[in-house]
Write a structure and sequence with these properties.
Residues 25-30 are annotated as: Involved in allosteric activation by GTP. With 242 residues, the protein is an alpha/beta fold. Helices cover 36% and strands 17% of the residues. The protein has one domain (13-241): Acetylglutamate kinase-like (Carbamate kinase, 3-Layer(aba) Sandwich). It is globular, with a radius of gyration of 17 Å. The mean pLDDT is 95. The chain binds adenosine-5'-diphosphate and uridine-5'-diphosphate.
Length: 242
């Protein structure tokens, strides 16, 4: 088990969303084991201060249904491939977490007997209370959704205190900062501001779901050392949407 510390967390249970692309690291495609190890270290520091951690991992480093569809594939088949990609990422993440001595469960929205457990909310909550990391794979289990929506859905189901979206940018900006260098960062936004201003950092289904259930969202850059710990201990980091 990771070492415990005296830091008092502000959040008791969080749902962390990692984008698939975050796992690519220097590799360009697939999974960079160095990135997984670094993430396992960050997640371990949360477990060490008593925070319960649910994880939703994307699949964009491997397959995205919309991109496969644009290349001519049937959309539902493409989305099934995207969901399977999230299971592969989940298995890789479990491997890295367990190598760091962090007990980890992987649950899939799509039954995959012999490889991972089938998603069971009550069991997931029990495992979280026991201090295990629970990785929720295969998104929502349905095509035409994203893992951002899956993160909000699972976060609401497990009664997380917040959904933390780790991504490549350090918050929500007035425009995509990769496309508009003059874009300005927000510290705080309401759900309706994100929807009205069409801020594209998260899909609208996810934002609506979070709004309807009062689930706070925080968008932050996972590559900033200590970012996760700062968030759960109540320091300002990234953008808060609530
Ligand atoms: N208003 C915005 N503020 C911040 N990022 C934005 C905004 N609009 C679009 N983005 C883009 O959204 C991306 C984050 O979403 P994410 O789901 O992690 O990536 P992807 O959609 O590539 O998987 C950022 O890398 C950024 O380029
Ligand atoms: O509930 C879901 C979640 C994901 N996906 C598919 O899985 C892919 C990978 O997820 P996502 O694009 O959200 O990954 P990320 O951008 O976070 O890496 C998506 O493009 C979809 O094709 C899906 O069909 N239903």
């Amino acid at each position: 088990m990771p070492k415990s510390s005296n830091t008092q967390p502000r959040y008791k249970r969080v749902l962390l969303k990692l984008s698939g692309e975050a796992l690519v690291g220097d590799h360009g495609f697939g999974i960079d084991p160095k990135v997984l190890d670094r993430m396992a270290l960050d997640i371990g520091s949360l477990i060490g201060i008593g925070v319960q951690v649910g994880l939703v991992i994307g699949g964009g480093n491997l397959f995205r249904g919309a991109a496969l569809n644009a290349a001519g594939m049937d959309r539902v088949t493409g989305d099934h491939m995207g969901m399977l990609a999230t299971v592969m990422n989940g298995l890789a993440m479990r491997d890295a977490l367990e190598r760091s001595n962090i007990r980890t469960r992987v649950m899939s929205a799509i039954p995959m007997s012999g490889i991972v457990e089938h998603y069971d909310r009550r069991r997931a909550v029990r495992d979280l209370k026991d201090g295990d990391v629970v990785i929720f794979c295969a998104g929502t289990g349905n095509p035409f959704f994203t893992t951002d929506s899956a993160a909000c859905l699972r976060g609401i189901e497990i009664e997380a205190d917040a959904v933390l979206k780790a991504t490549k940018v350090d918050g929500v900006y007035s425009a995509d900062p990769y496309k508009d260098p003059t874009a300005e960062k927000y510290e705080h936004l309401t759900y309706d501001e994100v929807l009205d201003k069409k801020l594209g950092v998260m899909d609208l289904t996810a934002i609506c779901l979070a709004r309807d259930h009062g689930m706070p969202l925080r968008v932050f850059d996972m590559n900033r050392p200590g970012a996760l710990t700062r968030i759960v201990t109540g320091e300002s980091e990234g953008t808060l949407i609530e």
